[in-house]
């Protein structure tokens, strides 16, 4: 893996740019096999990248691959993060999304290299928190930005992207996802991030 200022020369998804404007790009992504882990960020004592380690262990990015083959799987970019409100199991339990995003669950995904076309072709994870599944073809409105993807910055990007998409007649069909192209230790000036909103 060649590191150049924290940029890694790795496989990235082969999307098709359907439309490009000053504000955003509309992209179509092909079906992909992903490894994902969903967790409550508070389980990791405030480490919002807690899922990163589990996924990195599965593919063998941090040493021996923790999968049943065991087979080392090449790292790809970006790492995708989705946020969801946690649904309380029983009424009167109320989970508030306070500061630090309590009451939210985080799903972190690694896209597996394109040589894996079906979920069953990928090595099985040893840790059952890691789930392998297939995602079908999908379309996103995307905006790219540098620096650190703080909650505040991401929130502002999501709002303005949503407005632009709706203004131009696109139908938003789900929550945004955050795509980060560099490992967590990359210097802010060299980071590339994208906010992606699924559209019809």
Automatic annotation (TrEMBL):
It holds the Pfam family SOUL. InterPro entries: Reg_factor_effector_dom_sf, SOUL_heme-bd. PANTHER family: HEME-BINDING PROTEIN-RELATED (PTHR11220), SOUL HEME-BINDING FAMILY PROTEIN (PTHR11220:SF58). Belongs to the HEBP family. This is SOUL heme-binding family protein.
